[in-house]
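I am writing to request your help with a piece of structural work I have in hand. Thank you for your consideration; the sequence and its tokens are set out here:
=====
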Amino acid sequence: MKPDYKNWMPKGMILTALIVTAVFLILFAVFGLTGVVSGTLKTVLFIVFLVGTVIGLCVSIWRILLYRAFSYNGKRQMSKQIIEGIADYVKLPDGGTGLDVGCGSGALCIACAKRNPNASFIGVDRWGKEYASFNKPLCENNAWAEGVKNTSFRRGDATHLDFPDESFDAVVSNYVYHNIPGDRQSYLLETLRVLKKGGTFALHDIFSKSKYGDMQSFMRKLKDMGYEDVRLIDTANGTWITKWEGIWMELSGSALLVGRK
């Protein structure tokens, strides 16, 4: 049995984009190219439905390209490179515990557990309808397929983690927080709340200003709070993935690494 880590660009999202594009194309053909309407209204509908078709087509192509790039079994294997890149930063003491926030199909949690066989990892996720193919049984099956026994998975909320302060020696996360509406810097602080002193937080996400605000200011805030090692690494420059792949990701991602004594 082989693990099935799915794809970070679900087929459902691709299908939705294609359907929307097809609807706009049909409306464009009916109202923009025939005599059903005329005059100014026809001109307006021609422009609106043409623009909708073009945008839908661009989104569809972009999602298909991401699907190909994220495939674990494809040529680029961008997902695997990112997962392994994050996991390489995580070193836990014997008997230590780690947390993966937004574990999805369990890939990152399992990768970290494999590198730390004398520690244990917990993966939490809400497994929402947007990623219907991701669920707890999938994570457990993947751990079994990888021969990993030091993991467990449960439902959880990244914005309100159900763990006491300073519960984990390491906390990791990958491409999660940018999908959650609201103050993402506050979500990072909630995650750091459960990190033990001396622990490591390794987060990979899309840290654009529109999503996270001023990260340089946030990093200074963390240092003022006592976090001694705070780094933001651009992973689109070939650190974990190639520059070509990064073109399709807006900013393919950056890694925020945080640790303190």
Observations:
- The two ends are 42 Å apart (CA to CA).
